[in-house]
Predict the structure of Pectinesterase inhibitor domain-containing protein.
Amino acid sequence: SNWPSASLVDDVCKQSDTTYGDCVSTLESDPRTRTASDLRSLARIVLETAHANTTKSKEHFEIMAKSSMTAPDLMAALKKCIFGYDRAAALFSSSRMKIDLDITAASYDAIAAHAGALFCAYQYNSTTRIDVQTIRARNIYLESYATIAFVIINQLGG
């Protein structure tokens, strides 16, 4: 990739706990990434995308919870996932607002958002044997966004 932010993405993804390929595809999922001129602008893009993606996932879980097609075994897990994702979305938004004010707090909020996926996964894994690909995939996305945002903000001095 030879666009301005390619080396920025490369540097971030080499330091992320997320696999390199997943990190790159997560960052490139937002076309604005290509226009990021520095870490701060990349952090804003990642946090905005993370907020939007997490909110969409929460809404997906709400639809599943209301559907008569959803197995009753999944209801408790879905309620926890909705709660965890709502909290994670709020933390991504909070982190985005704090980037210019308090970089340490922005860093904390970004990594704390990761707990939304853990909370959801724990409840899901402990209450049902049903394997729902969409829940697993969404947890992986949330964890990736939180980890990547944390790496970027730490490079900013968080």
Observations:
- The CA atoms of residues 61 and 78 lie 6 Å apart.
- DSSP finds seven helices and no strands in the chain.
